[in-house]
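Much of what follows relies on a compact textual record of a protein's fold. A record is reproduced here so that you can trace the correspondence yourselves:
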Amino acid sequence: MTLNVRIQRPARLDMPFSHETSEEDVDRVLTFPPFSHMDPAKFPSHAPLREILLNDTRILRYRAGDIVVREGDYGNSAYFIMSGSVQVFLNLPKSILGRKEPRRKGLFNAIAQLWRNPTQPEERTLSPDTGVSRVKTRYDKAGNAHVFLQDLPVILGEYETNRIEVGDLFGEISALGRVARTATIVADQETELLEIRWQGLRRLRLFDQRLKEDIDARYRERNLKVHLLQTPLFQHLTLEQLEEVANQVEFQSYGDFDWYGPYKAIMSRSAAERLDHEPIIAEEGHYPNGLILIRSGFVRLSQQFGHGHRTLTYLGRGKIYGLEEIEHNWQSEARISLKHTLRAIGYVDILLVPTHVIESLVLPSLPSAQLRPLVPSNTRHVPVQRDREHERRIDPDFLEFLVDERFINGTSTMMINLDRCTGCDDCVRACATAHENNPRFTRHGKRDGKYLIANACMHCVDPVCLIGCPTGAIHREGFHGHVVIDDTTCVGCSTCANSCPYDNIQMVDIRDENGHLILDERTHAPILKATKCDLCVDQLGGPACQRACPHDALQRIDMSDLFSLSNGPN
């Protein structure tokens, strides 16, 4: 008889941010405001203040010149200065940050790839630590990599900066919103920082009203009005009206920030069970209590169908929901309720503008030509901010597949029509030719009907692969926003490959021009590099895979563009 093994269910705090954070460290943190002003009694027994600080923070020590965060990088931590100070740089050149502008090959070099490419796999001509201007990597005693700027005094003299000193918090807006860092921050002396991972920052913000108000006030002051002005509905408002709207906006978050962790387990469940993991933001049949603006992430728009729900479309950053119902109710006494259900897919940040604010400030000042006609009272459909013409051309089951598998996250998803594909492998050979005989994708992946979503980097809207890269080697290229890897600063840690929920990043051994493995001189283990599709950023004409397909079976598609999706490889 087989004996069952019983263990205690693992909890989040079983995996602390750092095993080195001690009770003495927590005592020291609690001497600094705002932590010293926090009331432990307001924290629940399952998440006491000391436990949050013990398990969700770590103390990092930086030398002068060390880069703490880099403009354009993604991260899930905020930082509090315990000693020392840092300098804030805006718009540093990419060469200083250890990055290179993509350089396209000329016509001759593009053709010469056919005979000049090496015959050995993953051949490299540069060692891992060369070829980067003014940036170097060092390792601390724990083996952690730190990227630092050479000639910091010279750089400080060349570029305008702001200093942040002891007691200041920075990085919280990017951490909470999962948006790119807007500045490069560099230690200008021996500095101690308390790094607070997102989970802990959320709990501190949840149970300490003063911290929540401080973080929200920073966002209102620095970012909110800019965000509102990007929405046409608010562009006609006066500055005074815009300020009043901004003061009434509520910030809300739904879903799991680390959605990519349990993603694969959730995908193995039934459709109904998967919906249970998508928190409801607004529900069909309820009163519209506010206008919803999607700040980050994706939401599923669905409607009751039989005993379940059918996905109608998905909405991403910049889209709004609820305006049609609010506008109808403002113009008519025949009130209507919400006609669709809105669910968070993964992790979603929204801004909620209360209905009374829209009715009292926005709609009265809206030009009459922009007011929509009333919604017929007997209809179940409300013309949400959707592209209905192109949605009708997308099979509903295929749309469900794309949403369930999170392929909507891609800005350049590789879609192959298997009815057209003959398996000639011209796409793979073209990819190999464009990348020194090393293909950067595999022609297999998830399939729905005649469509295959290949294992190729999708250059996601929410690129979780970027989070945690110690050197910033994987980053968004500044000109086009593609997710690329700087081979010279990649240290082969595999963080990006482990984080990618689509298995689209591979770790490979690299070789010299003679085919010999390049080994770490300290450990004698093979040097690894992360590789993936770079959209042929240096090639004339863009992705070679798509251009090489003789049957137009393969296409790279921005999933937020329903026109491209509906006109894909049919």
